Each structure stands twice: as structure tokens, then as C-alpha cells.
């Protein structure tokens, strides 16, 4: 490839300086990860596409990408549950593919990579949150074979911590949001159950413990959640005694 299709890589030191000036107050987590991917692409040789994958437990998620090639190759690995991206994320090892046409490690994946025009790749592990079993990888998919030299490997490794911090912050934010949503649902459930208890206490002149036991029994007999039984009682007044 020649001309504009294979531009000269940008200066890694200048790009790293730009990354260092980025502020979480000015960018969303998604935007920050996308910026890391976009800037990584400008540094790497081989006219590449770049992706950032986050692995929570054993479930991979594509967090950012610079083009369809990266999306296709990441998703192919997710489908097969193996490949350089997932291996880097799971083992903490940098994985380089010099030539997908001759590499024997993940042949079914490499056949797709060659078909899509990717002949070499570099996956840098991201240490996000070991306690929460969260890891990731910064993936560079190059269209040329043997695309990476020592300088490009070093640059990719230096980009890793920026992606790891951004991915970690994004995961923490999403986890906190999910926890808040779960807490809200739990509080709403508690409120409607308390209301239903009050209805039963008044209707049958029983204690709070006895009222909850009635709800629990109705839940088991109807094979429905206690909250659903309580909600039905509160809104309709209907309650099966047995």
C-alpha cells in the first residue's frame, strides 16, 4: 500500500503528551477510551485499526474501536472464545502476531483475519481491577505483515496504562450505576411489601410477622415473587388466603 492509504505514524512522545493532558472532567469515559484508541492508531505502523476490549470475569465487551476491521476481528474472537486479544486480557501477556498467514496458534481466527485483510496484530494487556476480575486489552490490527518493530511495541505498551485507567473508571461508574439501580428496585420492592403487610394486618387483625408469612405462602403457592403478590394486593385488594 502507498500514499494516503499508509500514512507515516505520528510521533509517539507527542501523542503520549496529548494523552497526559486529557481530563476526565472534560471527556466522558467512553470518549476517553475512544480518544486513546484514535491516538494509538496514529502512532502505530501498518495502516492499522485499534480496539479496546474489557473482560469482566470471562465476558468480553468491545469498549472502543477505530474501524470496522477492529470490530469484526474482536467479535470473531468473542464468538470463538479465543484469539490474541482474549489471550492478552486473560494472561497479562503481550501477544504479537507477525504474520497471520503462518501463525499456528488460533487458525480458525487467523483465517478470518487474513480474509479481512489483517496480516499482523499486537495486543497489549490492560490491568484494570484484579480484585474484581476485570482486565482488558488494547489491540492493534495491522494490514501489513511484520508491521511492528521495537519502537512501535514500546509505544503500544506505553499506551496501555491510559486505556487501563479509562476502562477501569468506566467499569467502576457502570458498576456504581447498576448498584444504584438495584438498590432503587430493592427499596421499591420493600415499600410495596410494607404496604401489602399493612393491608393484611388491617384486614385479618394479625401481626406483621404473620402478614409476611401469608405473603410468603401465597408466593410459593402461585410460584410468583413476593413483590408481585404484594403489588397485586395493593393495587387490586385481591389476595388468595391459601
From TrEMBL:
Which of UniProt's keywords are assigned here?
Transcription, Transcription regulation
Query: Which GO molecular function terms does the record list?
Result: RNA binding
- Ranges where the ANTAR domain occurs: 173-234
> Cross-referenced SMART domains, in alphabetical order?
ANTAR (SM01012), GAF (SM00065)
Pfam families in the record, alphabetically? ANTAR (PF03861), GAF_2 (PF13185)
What is this protein identified as?
GAF domain-containing protein
InterPro entries membership: ANTAR, GAF, GAF-like_dom_sf, GAF_ANTAR, WH-like_DNA-bd_sf
Amino acid at each position: 500500500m502507498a500514499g494516503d492509504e499508509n500514512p507515516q505514524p505520528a510521533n509517539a512522545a507527542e501523542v503520549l503528551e496529548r494523552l497526559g493532558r486529557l481530563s476526565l472532567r472534560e471527556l466522558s469515559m467512553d470518549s476517553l477510551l475512544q480518544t486513546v484508541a484514535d491516538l494509538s492508531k496514529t502512532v502505530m505502523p501498518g495502516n492499522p485499526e485499534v480496539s479496546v476490549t474489557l473482560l469482566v470475569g470471562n465476558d468480553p465487551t468491545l469498549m472502543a474501536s477505530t474501524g470496522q476491521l477492529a470490530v469484526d476481528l474482536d467479535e470473531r474472537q468473542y464468538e470463538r472464545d479465543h484469539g490474541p486479544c482474549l489471550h492478552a486480557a486473560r494472561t497479562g501477556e503481550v501477544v504479537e502476531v507477525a504474520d497471520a498467514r503462518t501463525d499456528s496458534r488460533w487458525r480458525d481466527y487467523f483465517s478470518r483475519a487474513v480474509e479481512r485483510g489483517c496480516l499482523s496484530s499486537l495486543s497489549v494487556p490492560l490491568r484494570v481491577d484484579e480484585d474484581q476480575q476485570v482486565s482488558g486489552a488494547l489491540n492493534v490490527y495491522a494490514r501489513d505483515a511484520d508491521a511492528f518493530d521495537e519502537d512501535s511495541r514500546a509505544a503500544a505498551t506505553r499506551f496501555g496504562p491510559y486505556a487501563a485507567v479509562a476502562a477501569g473508571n468506566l467499569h467502576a461508574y457502570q458498576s456504581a450505576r447498576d448498584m444504584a439501580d438495584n438498590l432503587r428496585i430493592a427499596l421499591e420492592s420493600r415499600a410495596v411489601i410494607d404496604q401489602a403487610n399493612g393491608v393484611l394486618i388491617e384486614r385479618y387483625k394479625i401481626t406483621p410477622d404473620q402478614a409476611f408469612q401469608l405473603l410468603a405462602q401465597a408466593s410459593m403457592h402461585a410460584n410468583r415473587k413476593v413483590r408481585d403478590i404484594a403489588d397485586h394486593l395493593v393495587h387490586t385488594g385481591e389476595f388468595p388466603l391459601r
